[in-house]
């Protein structure tokens, strides 16, 4: 008597699809898996031996391919051409983007856009003025002259700094407030003396002019007296 065949539990398409998805979820999305490798690897994640046999059997490989195709059409997995048989991997995560926006946010964005537009206009106007200034400078001074002027100013700066360093390191001491006040007082006194002497000189020359004899030149006389020195 021939031995009876062992009854196998019928596997549904949903169970096969879940097994495939469970395996692919454990794989990097950047490394697709071909159908043959996928069928053999499902043993690790297969809850039923019968399901594994159906996934790896040559006679039902078309059914496995159909399951993969259905998953691909539902955007649950991604398929790529790889030689004779396609490769599959889990679909990349695509967040559900909400395109709606509150009126307050829209008003804020309009205000920000207006501010940026005004700033852009002001920047363009400034750039226009600077271009005009550059054109004017190029028309008055050549590039060689500008470089020469800059070099001369840098040399002058170095000279001033060297003199300043010498003063700082030398024996020259700063003038105190009291000394400065005394010097200013003496300066004011000498200015008064100078003004008084100038007035006396003018008065004396007036008297001399009134008593000059005929034939004497005023210019020659002022030169001999040293009044114009």
UniProtKB/TrEMBL annotation:
<keyword id="KW-0469">Meiosis</keyword>
<protein>
    <recommendedName>
        <fullName>Homologous-pairing protein 2 winged helix domain-containing protein</fullName>
    </recommendedName>
</protein>
<dbReference type="GO" id="GO:0120231">
    <property type="term" value="C:DNA recombinase auxiliary factor complex"/>
</dbReference>
<dbReference type="GO" id="GO:0000794">
    <property type="term" value="C:condensed nuclear chromosome"/>
</dbReference>
<dbReference type="InterPro" id="IPR036388">
    <property type="entry name" value="WH-like_DNA-bd_sf"/>
</dbReference>
<dbReference type="GO" id="GO:0007129">
    <property type="term" value="P:homologous chromosome pairing at meiosis"/>
</dbReference>
<dbReference type="GO" id="GO:0120230">
    <property type="term" value="F:recombinase activator activity"/>
</dbReference>
<keyword id="KW-0539">Nucleus</keyword>
<dbReference type="GO" id="GO:0010774">
    <property type="term" value="P:meiotic strand invasion involved in reciprocal meiotic recombination"/>
</dbReference>
<keyword id="KW-0233">DNA recombination</keyword>
<dbReference type="GO" id="GO:0003690">
    <property type="term" value="F:double-stranded DNA binding"/>
</dbReference>
<dbReference type="GO" id="GO:0000709">
    <property type="term" value="P:meiotic joint molecule formation"/>
</dbReference>
């Amino acid at each position: 008597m021939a031995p009876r065949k062992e009854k196998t539990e019928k596997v549904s398409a949903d169970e096969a699809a879940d097994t495939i998805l469970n395996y692919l979820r454990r794989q990097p999305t950047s490394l697709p898996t071909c159908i043959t490798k996928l069928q053999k690897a499902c043993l690790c994640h297969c809850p039923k031996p019968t399901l594994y046999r159906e996934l790896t059997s040559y006679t039902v490989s078309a059914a496995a391919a159909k399951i993969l195709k259905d998953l691909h059409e539902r955007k649950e997995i991604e398929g790529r051409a790889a030689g004779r048989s396609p490769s599959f991997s889990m679909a990349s995560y695509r967040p559900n983007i909400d395109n709606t926006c509150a009126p307050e946010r829209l008003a804020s964005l309009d205000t920000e856009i207006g501010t940026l537009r005004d700033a852009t206009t002001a920047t363009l106007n400034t750039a226009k003025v600077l271009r005009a200034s550059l054109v004017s400078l190029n028309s008055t001074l050549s590039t060689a002259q500008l470089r020469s002027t800059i070099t001369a100013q840098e040399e002058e700066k170095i000279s001033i700094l060297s003199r300043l360093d010498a003063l700082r390191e030398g024996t020259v001491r700063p003038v105190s407030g009291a000394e400065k006040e005394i010097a200013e007082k003496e300066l004011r006194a000498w200015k008064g003396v100078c003004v008084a002497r100038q007035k006396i000189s003018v008065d004396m020359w007036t008297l001399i002019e009134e008593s000059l004899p005929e034939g004497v030149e005023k210019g020659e006389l002022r030169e001999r007296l040293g009044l114009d020195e």
